[in-house]
Amino acid sequence: MLANRKGFTLVEMIFVLAITVIISSITLAFRKPKASAQAQIALVTHAFQLARSQA
User: Fold this and answer.
1) DSSP 18-52
2) How far apart are alpha carbons 39 and 17 in whole angstroms?
3) DSSP class of 53
4) What is the pTM of this model?
5) In angstroms, rounded to a whole number, what is the distance separating the alpha carbons of residues 4 and 18?
């Protein structure tokens, strides 16, 4: 009778969802924050000023 059963039970789906949430939270905790847009603009501006002064 169990061989005719198809699909997942609610407990199995909750278990998989819980594992997914735990793995996602671990990866987000170790993710490095990206530099802000203004910091990147300042770096590019500085690089252009340096190139202009050396030219």
Assistant:
1) HHHHHHHHHHHHTPPPPPPHHHHHHHHHHHHHHHH
2) 37
3) H
4) 0.49
5) 27
Residue type (1 letter), 40:
Q
- For residue 5, CA distances in Å to 2, 14, 19 come to 5, 19, 24
Burial letters for 7-29: b for 16+ Cβ neighbours within 10 Å, e otherwise? eeeeeeeeeeeeeeeeeeeeeee
Instruction: From first to last of the 55 residues of the chain, give the pLDDT tens digit.
Output: 566 778 889 999 999 999 999 999 998 888 777 768 888 889 999 999 999 898 7
